[in-house]
Amino acid sequence: MVDNSAQNQEDTLLVVDDEPPRVDLPRERVRRSTAKDLVVLCACMSIVVFLANMAAMFFVDNNPPNKGYAVVKSKWKLLDGIEKPLDWLVLGDSSCLAAVDPAVWTEATGESVLNLCTLGDLLLLDDVWLLKDYLSQHGAPQGVVVMHAYDMWYREVGDGALSLFGQIERPWGIWDRAKPKVELNASDRLKVFLARFVPLLSQAKSIRDALVPSPASLRDRKGSIAPQFNISDSGFMPGPARPINVLKDTQGHKQFVRENKPIVSSPNQKALSELVSLAEEFGFPVKVVMSPLHDELKHDEAFRAYFEGTLKELNAYADKTQHLKFVSKVETYPASAMQNSDNLGRAKVSDFTRKLVRDVVMD
C-alpha cells in the first residue's frame, strides 16, 4: 500500500500558500456631531464660498467676460471721466454703440461728442439717468441724440434690465432715487443684488467660458484671458459684419412684427416724459432717431406697418414740446454691412455717422 500522506501534506501547504493574506481594514469611528460641529462646518463652507466669490469679483473687474456688463460699467465710468462740458451727447442702445463714431462726428462738425449708448434691455431709463447725471455736473449740452432699435420701445423691465442695473457704477438703489423711478419687488432686488455682488453665481457661465474657452473664442482673444471688448475712449464699440447672423435675425423680426402691436411701454413712457422735462428745464433739443436696419425689412409690409405705428406713438410726445423731435428717416444697409438686423458693421460706420450728423445737426 502506497503512503500518500507526504504528498497530501505538500498539496495542503501549496493551497495555503496560494491564499492571499488577510488584511484587517481600518474602521472609522464616527462620533456624535454636536451643534458646535455644525456651526464650524457652516462657517468653513461660508468662508470658502466668500473667498471664491471675492476671487470671481476680482476676475470680472479686471477681465470682464460679459459684454453687456462691460458696456454698462464702461459708460458710467466714461461719464465720471468727463473733464469739461461737451457739445453733444449720444444716448441709446447697442445700435448706436456700434454705429456712431464720435471721431467722425467731430471731424465733420468740429464739435465734441461722447457716445454713452448702452443696451436695449435698459430701455430709455438708463439714457435718462445718464443724462441727468451729466446735467448735474456740466449743465446743458448743445444737443442730445437718442437712438434706439424700433423694438426697444415696447419692452418692459425684465431680467435683462435687472442684471444690468447691478452694473451701474452708482450707489445701491439708483432705481429708487432717480427719475423715472422703477418699482422693484423683493425678488427683483435679489436679482440685482446677485448681479452686482455675487458674480460667482450671476456670471458663472461667462467666467467658465473665459477660463475654458472654445477654440474659436480663443483665437479672437489674441492672448488675453478674457474676451476683448474694444470700447474707445469716446464710447464707440465697432464690430465686424456678420451676414449669416443678419439673415437669421431678420426672420425673427418679421415674426415679431406679426405677433405684436406697436406700443410704447409704461417705463418708456415715463422715461420719455422725464426726458422732455429735462430738455425744457435746461433748454436743449433732443433728436430721437431710429437705428440703421437691414434693407430687407423695409420691403416687408408687416414690418412697415409696425414701424409706422411705433413712430405714430412716439410723435404724440413730440407734438407736445418744441424740444423733442423724432427723425423718421431710417438708413438701411445690405446684410453684408450689418452685424445683425439693427447693428451696423464697422465698414459703414463712417457713412452712417455722417448721415446722422446731416440729419440732426445740419437740418
For the biggest β-sheet, the strand order reads 2-1-3-4-6
Question: What is the CA-based Rg, rounded?
Answer: 31 Å
Query: Mean pLDDT across all residues, rounded?
Result: 88
* Assembly of the depicted chains: single chain
The portion of residues assigned to helices is 40-55%
Name the helix and strand elements from N-terminus to C-terminus, one letter apiece: HHHEHHEHEHHHHHHHHEEHEEH
Number of strands: 7
Q: In terms of per-residue confidence, which ranges show pLDDT below 50 for 5 or more consecutive residues?
A: none
Q: Which outline best applies?
A: elongated
Discrete helix count: 16
- Strand proportion: 5-15%
Largest sheet: 5 strands, parallel
- The end-to-end distance, rounded to whole angstroms, is 130 Å
**Helix vs. strand class:** alpha/beta
